[in-house]
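Let's see one such:

===
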Amino acid sequence: MRRILAALTTLTAAAGLAVALPAGTASAATCATPWSAGAVYTGGMSASYGGHNWQAKWWTQGETPGTTGQWGVWADQGTCGGTTDPGNPGNPSGFVVSEAQFNQMFPGRNSFYSYSGLVAALSAYPGFAKTGSDTVKKQEAAAFLANIAHETGGLVHIVEQNTANYPHYCDTSQPYGCPAGQAAYYGRGPIQLSWNFNYKAAGDALGIDLLRNPWLVEQDSAVAWKTGLWYWNTQSGPGTMTPHNAMVNQAGFGQTIRSINGSLECDGRNPAQVQSRVNNYQRFTQILGVAPGGNLTC
């Protein structure tokens, strides 16, 4: 997106509970106590994060389960919480995209953009990909993932690649200024959040001080995903509706492009960029087994 744009605890592994379930469902393991960034974990201790239980291999503090830069300190112990379709055991959250489908969509992705991080972020916007019919839910998920695939080169880039742009994203007219430094608000995360005012707005909405610590978006997978979902669900950018509303109200994939980067891509300005997004969307809807619908371009 072109700059349009939040106790040390001893934890033990929890056992699964055998319960009577309707046909077609299966019991998932009970989740351990949620992971805490401030807690110290030693080898053998467990925590839950992103719908999975994780076990520390050795001493660790602050390394998010399932993301990069952790030297293999966490071992994935499998899914936990609620129930799951036996044919899709990696999806206890009810998200319409399974982990296998996610991996199929992004075979060369940076491990920072973890499926567990995405699942952990979904609670911030419970209406996302859970509104309307099964078709609409899958179309919205595909539309979101298609746009971020375009923004990040297939979930490869965590930060904006053109470092020359970095000093430009500080709007000094804002009363709160740029407390993290003039060059600190460059594009980060799946939707390439940028500008100090967007970091403040996203942080305020998510309850995270991103204005003073914008680096969280490139350090914590769940935070990164939440900033993408914040924009998708709450911002209309140069468009007339949020991308979420565009898909839920069946205005078409093209309106999500307009809301994200319409001022530079729509109305014939950059048809190749628009087509790149459309190609992603058509491929992802095919993976999810759903028709893409109409109004694909802007």
About this structure: DSSP finds nine helices and seven strands in the chain.
